[in-house]
Amino acid sequence: MGTHVIKMPDIGEGIAEVELSVWHVKVGDMVVEDQVLADVMTDKAMVDIPSPVHGKVIALGGQPGEVMAVGSVLISIEVEGAGNVKESAQPAPVKEVPVAAPKVEAVVESKPVAAPAPKAAVCQGPMVARAADERPLASPAVRKHALDLGIQLRLVRGTGPAGRVLHEDLDAYLAQGQSNASAPVAAAYAQRTDEQQIPVIGMRRKIAQRMQDATQRAAHFSYVEEIDVTAVEELRAHLNEKHGATRGKLTLLPFLVRAMVVALRDFPQMNARYDDEAQVITRLGAVHVGVATQSDVGLMVPVVRHAEARSLWDSAAEIARLANAARNGKASRDELSGSTITLTSLGALGGIVSTPVLNLPEVAIVGVNKIVERPMVIKGQIVIRKMMNLSSSFDHRVVDGMDAALFIQAIRGLLEQPATLFVD
């Protein structure tokens, strides 16, 4: 018997170290050639590490969340024969996959350790009994949905990775008639003293690093303006009624993208990237709009490329395609990079005002708040209008406050008179 050592591969693009995100094997497991052993994360993508040999795992080189240098020992496998350690320094080819949810999330009581396998469900249906202090895996959106429905997540069987509770699991739970009323009422008022320590690893670590980097390096300032979107909403409803069945339904986002594209003609300094190390601002003619999208692993920013050359329906279809890919963990590295300006929206949860963080090295981000009906005074008359705030942030190192205000006012004018969106 011999030992085959697999080292952390050189993934390219000058990357010197990567984060070990999750193991798919453990010591003692038998593996076969091309079986995925682990996922590692670069700045932009998750990468599968496959096995080049058949054998038995005898040692793991790190724990999930550990940052490992390229060339360091990743895993040791016992193989038939003398082994091939020298050649294993040239690791098996890696397969880049879209950034997706880690297969396992580590939740521990004292110190970070490898995450245990999910506990078996008591039953195979949508209901499962968990301990009162056990917090099931679920995204913030699923937790809010469960709260709105009055469902205790610990009673719902999760069918996602590592037992993660999905929206479909809530639907299945309700379909079987199980509700919060089935749990003892007293449990809702019981004292709790449990604590959880959740290692910040994988995508959450990358998000934390990028947000911290952005706020430390850029001189953020925000500008908020309210917009009367009554007219553009009427146009959207009309277009959906007339063409929705054949061209697809339009949301407000493609109108916002169009307004940004048109406004950028007069404010090219907003469609730029700032290299603060080289002290160079690059203004781009192409408008690649990053559309911030919430996924189960956190905020992702897929990119609508060449928005300046897209119609409303083309933009709408591309936004929907990219958002779906991001939420399902299927967005590629190219689809998640290269934006020149970002559009962020929390949809119905958009609130009144927000302070979005720049997506460096960009210098502008346009934030969309929710639409509300409010009484407004127009020509001395009180009328009900649909109003919406834009809460946008800029890098004050390269964008002057006056220019930022004029840019947002230009977007406001285009949306309040939507015919001007299509006047060249």
In short:
The protein has 424 residues and is of the alpha+beta class. It has helices at 140-149, 167-175, 202-217, 230-247, 253-264, 312-327, 401-416; strands spanning 2-7, 17-23, 30-31, 36-41, 46-50, 55-60, 67-69, 73-79, 95-97, 220-228, 272-275, 280-283, 289-291, 293-295, 298-300, 303-304, 341-345, 364-378, 381-395. Strand 14 (293-295) and strand 15 (298-300) form a beta hairpin.
Please provide a written account of the structure.
The chain is an alpha+beta fold. The chain is built from 7 helices and 19 strands. It has helices spanning 140-149, 167-175, 202-217, 230-247, 253-264, 312-327, 401-416, and strands at residues 2-7, 17-23, 30-31, 36-41, 46-50, 55-60, 67-69, 73-79, 95-97, 220-228, 272-275, 280-283, 289-291, 293-295, 298-300, 303-304, 341-345, 364-378, 381-395. The strands form 5 sheets. Strands 10-19-18-17-13-16 form a 6-stranded mixed β-sheet, covered by helices on one side. Strands 7-2-4-5-9 form a 5-stranded antiparallel β-sheet, with no helix packed on it. It has a 4-stranded antiparallel β-sheet with strand order 1-8-6-3, with no helix packed on it. Strand 14 (293-295) and strand 15 (298-300) form a beta hairpin. The longest helix is centred in the middle third of the chain and has 18 residues, at 230-247. Its cofactor is (R)-lipoate. One of its GO terms (molecular function) is lipoic acid binding. Its EC number is 2.3.1.-.
